[in-house]
Each structure stands twice: as structure tokens, then as C-alpha cells.
Design a protein that fits this description.
By secondary structure, this protein is of the alpha+beta class. The chain has 8 helices and 12 strands. It is elongated, with a radius of gyration of 23 Å.
């Protein structure tokens, strides 16, 4: 009798230990940002893919459930992992899986479009049509060349009559013709380029109004979080967020190479996608369904000056990123 009771206590203790260990692992995998691990290997590369991760955890729960048919100690762990998977997927859905839509523009609204153009390979006509169709007054083009950006601006002017100022910053000290272009509608007033991110390995192009009351603008492209560049990436993403928070009325958009679960975003600013229901609609890569992709392209703004009233995630032929369009309205 005593031996049986002792065996039963050991079995319960083993079940509890297995459940705690498996649950802890599932929680850390699903939300490494809660434990300060979202910028550490391997989580930095896993955290962008929230839906695949949630589905993977659901699969683990299913396997544990099947194992529990023969080894009942696995059943509590299966239930716990299922709860973690459901919570993760629910949080992702709450952030917004829709491709979104833009409400009609009002006077004072500013529409921002960001499209990584993949080494200037994105279809120029399609991009110009998207700029014209959305009425974008601010356009961020990471991985462009100066010539590419000016050609797109010329196509927009030919199609709509709108004149766009073109600003450009080359990557890595000008060793490449590529960089990040910022196109600004002349209707916002005359702008001049600034060097707020001079020395950054990748290109962030900033501009401020010379006249008029247009907002400070930034076209963003940060270093990718690849092995060997993680330190640079971990500095650049928060730096952009700090720039946004430090410049009253600022608008920034582009390829941040980071999701809202990585450190630094959105900082003291507002992410348009998260505010309007497209915050989990994948923008990269385009060769997988958006629900399975990573949302690394963003439009952010000073929330004390701007309210996001609509966003759209759109495909442009020739690039591996989906474009992000955000319509911002001045706060009352």
C-alpha cells in the first residue's frame, strides 16, 4: 500500500515537471519578447512568423495529445501547449490579418506609401499606378537607385500632373548605387534633405519642410538581422523609433526589417497597421501567403499629431515585399 502511494506521488510529480517544462518552452517560443529574447538567436528569426509558430505549437499539442493516449502524463502538457498556441494565434488575429483599405481622403490627410523595390527591379509602371491610385503624397522606396526613383516620379507626374521632389541616400557610404529614396508631393511644400542618420550602414533618408507646415519625413531601410549584422540591426531599429518620437509630427515608413515583437518598434510612435487591422498581414516574402509571412514593412507616426485612419497592403510585381499604404489624419 505504502509502495503504491509512493509510486503514485512520483508519477504526479513527474507529470507536473513535464507539464511545467513543456509549457515554459511553449510560452518562451510564442512570446520571446516578454522575456527580452526577441533580439537573441534563434528567436530573432522565429518571432516574425507568428502564424506558422502558432500552428507549429498547435501541432506539438496534437502530438502530445496522441502520445497521451498511451502515456497519460503527456495530456496536461498537451492541454497547456494548446492553450499557448490558441493565445498566440488569437493575439496575432487581433493585431489584424486583413489586407486593409483606405477611407476617402479629407483635407489635411497625408497618405504614405512604402515599397521595397528589390534592387530597383519592381515594376515601375505598376508602382507609379499605385502611387497615383492611392493618392500617396509621401513615398518610401528602399533598395532603389536615384535614377529609378526619378523615373517613378516622372511616371507619376505624367499620369497625374503631380510633381514629386526626390531625395536619395546611398547605402554604406556610397559603395553601392542602391539606397533609399524619399518622394514628396510638392503640395506638401518645399522640402530639404537632412542627414539625421549619417553613418548608418543602410540608408534612411530624412527631409524637413523649408516652407509650409508639412511633417518631418523619413524613408526607412534598416540592416537585416542576419548573422554578423545583429548588433547593427539592434541599434538601427530603435534609432529610427527614437527619431520618430523626437520629431514632433513625424511620419516614417519603409522596410524596418523588424516586426512589432522585436525590440524598438514602434517606440514612442504609432504603427498604422496595428492601429487599423493590418498589423499581422505579412509583407515579406511575397512567395508565401501573407498570413504566413513576416510584417517587417511599416508606416509609423507621432501619435500626438497623427491618427491612422486606414492602411492597405498591396502587391507590386517584381519585388519580394508587399507595399504598405497608410492614410494619416491630423489629431484634433
Amino acid at each position: 500500500m505504502h509502495r503504491t502511494a509512493h509510486r503514485s506521488r512520483r508519477a504526479r510529480a513527474a507529470t507536473a515537471a513535464v507539464t511545467v517544462v513543456v509549457t515554459a518552452g511553449a510560452v518562451v517560443a510564442a512570446a520571446p519578447d516578454r522575456f527580452g529574447l526577441a533580439d537573441a538567436r534563434p528567436f530573432v528569426w522565429v518571432v516574425p512568423f507568428r502564424v506558422p509558430l502558432g500552428l507549429g505549437l498547435a501541432g506539438v499539442a496534437g502530438v502530445l495529445g496522441l502520445a497521451g493516449l498511451r502515456w497519460r502524463r503527456a495530456l496536461p502538457a498537451a492541454a497547456a501547449v494548446a492553450v499557448v498556441a490558441a493565445a498566440s494565434l488569437t493575439a496575432t488575429a487581433h493585431r489584424g490579418l486583413s489586407a486593409g483599405e483606405l477611407p476617402p481622403a479629407r483635407e489635411g490627410d497625408v497618405t504614405v506609401l512604402a515599397s521595397n523595390v528589390l534592387h530597383a527591379r519592381a515594376d515601375r509602371d505598376a508602382l507609379a499606378r499605385l502611387v497615383v491610385g492611392t493618392g500617396a503624397q509621401v513615398v518610401s522606396l528602399p533598395e532603389a537607385t536615384d535614377a529609378y526613383a526619378r523615373d517613378v516620379a516622372a511616371r507619376v507626374e505624367a499620369a497625374s500632373g503631380r510633381s514629386l521632389q526626390v531625395f536619395f541616400t546611398g547605402d554604406r557610404g556610397g559603395r553601392s548605387r542602391e539606397g533609399t529614396a524619399l518622394l514628396v508631393d510638392a503640395g506638401l511644400g518645399e522640402y530639404r534633405q537632412t542627414d539625421d542618420f549619417a553613418g548608418s550602414p543602410t540608408a534612411v533618408t530624412t527631409a524637413v519642410p523649408v516652407d509650409g507646415d508639412g511633417p518631418p519625413l523619413a524613408a526607412v531601410h534598416t540592416t537585416a538581422p542576419v548573422p554578423g549584422l545583429l548588433q547593427e540591426w539592434s541599434r538601427e531599429v530603435p534609432a529610427v523609433a527614437r527619431w520618430c518620437a523626437a520629431n514632433p509630427g513625424a511620419l516614417a515608413a519603409g522596410d524596418f526589417n523588424a516586426t512589432l515583437d522585436h525590440p524598438g518598434l514602434p517606440g514612442g510612435c504609432v504603427d498604422a497597421g496595428a492601429a487599423t487591422g493590418t498589423g499581422a498581414h505579412g509583407t515579406w516574402p511575397v512567395d508565401v501567403p501573407a498570413v504566413l509571412g513576416a510584417t517587417i514593412d511599416h508606416a509609423v507616426a507621432d501619435g500626438s499629431a497623427w491618427e491612422a485612419v486606414g492602411t492597405g497592403v498591396r502587391e507590386v510585381p517584381g519585388t519580394d515585399h508587399r507595399a504598405v499604404v497608410a492614410r494619416w489624419r491630423p489629431t484634433p
